[in-house]
């Protein structure tokens, strides 16, 4: 099993990284391979809706987005983590996710997704919902924990004091491992669910 982890914080040793480290420790105990990519300190532009990816099979801009796509294709699960900025995820992370999920032309169905959010105080649930939408539009089951997947802290190291948040991260990793293994067994026995026609689109304005 392989899990790709995206850290949307610009701080490589901040509270968001600490939250992911809790998950990495559990994944290692479960024999799950992980790779963490720091996204928040990169220069990543947003999507310009050029639709070139439809013919290229990748984003027209040659940057981290296409590198992440290659790694995601080979992964069984994806963890997306972000600090909260104005009740929303880091804009750099959102730019990457918009382009990644739109331009990647491989089947993401049944790859397990999990979102992790870190905040000083508020905005965690809004950001949690924002990140989960990338999974639900792609047929990716979402791993849950004992609580919403958030941890609290402002200055680096403060998240170490959030005992409930730490337990939430660790249980999330265990649940995600179980779900990935269960899906692998189901895929082996039953295959993937049948898809409806991809040509069925309904516009609200004609």
UniProtKB/TrEMBL annotation:
Q: Name one GO molecular function term.
A: oxidoreductase activity
Membrane-crossing ranges are none
Task: Please tell me the species this chain comes from.
Answer: Olsenella porci
Annotated NADPH-dependent FMN reductase-like domain ranges read 1-148
- SUPFAM superfamilies, per the entry: Flavoproteins (SSF52218)
PANTHER family the record matches: NAD(P)H-DEPENDENT FMN-CONTAINING OXIDOREDUCTASE YWQN-RELATED
Lineage start: Bacteria, Bacillati, Actinomycetota, Coriobacteriia, Coriobacteriales
Domain of life, per the record?
Bacteria
Q: What's the protein here called?
A: Flavodoxin family protein
| Gene3D superfamilies associated with the record | 3.40.50.360
Ordered alphabetically, the record's keywords are: Flavoprotein, FMN
